[in-house]
Amino acid sequence: AVLGPTHASTLGSISNLASSLLAMGKHGEAEKWQRHVLVTREVMLGKMHPETLQSVYSLALMLQETGRHQEAEPLLRRAAEGREEVLGLNHPDTLTAVSSLAVLLQATGQMDEAEGTHWRALTGRE
């Protein structure tokens, strides 16, 4: 291995592989690799590093896409709150996570919170 298993480029490649596996319908394998990237980034970079928060967000979307909303919700909240703290209230990545959380809340029938969260994303983008 030229770069090693914990190098940022290696982890990025693994995350891309996980996305491809998900698109191919290999949900279990995709989730395994995405969780591997998340855990490795947590250990190497810390729980609040932007790349770690991206892994949290990616795993949340993967779970949401496979209908596992209850597992995805706390991860989306973590991604949105973490990005808000690290990147700022109106950073595009923060607002993307907030918007994704709003969509999930709406899909799970949490309409009042979904509306407020949609407004939060919109206000940040205006």
From TrEMBL:
<keyword id="KW-0802">TPR repeat</keyword>
<dbReference type="Pfam" id="PF13374">
    <property type="entry name" value="TPR_10"/>
</dbReference>
<dbReference type="GO" id="GO:0005871">
    <property type="term" value="C:kinesin complex"/>
</dbReference>
<dbReference type="InterPro" id="IPR011990">
    <property type="entry name" value="TPR-like_helical_dom_sf"/>
</dbReference>
<dbReference type="GO" id="GO:0005737">
    <property type="term" value="C:cytoplasm"/>
</dbReference>
<protein>
    <recommendedName>
        <fullName>Kinesin light chain</fullName>
    </recommendedName>
</protein>
<dbReference type="InterPro" id="IPR002151">
    <property type="entry name" value="Kinesin_light"/>
</dbReference>
<dbReference type="GO" id="GO:0007018">
    <property type="term" value="P:microtubule-based movement"/>
</dbReference>
<keyword id="KW-0677">Repeat</keyword>
<dbReference type="Pfam" id="PF13424">
    <property type="entry name" value="TPR_12"/>
</dbReference>
<keyword id="KW-0963">Cytoplasm</keyword>
<dbReference type="GO" id="GO:0019894">
    <property type="term" value="F:kinesin binding"/>
</dbReference>
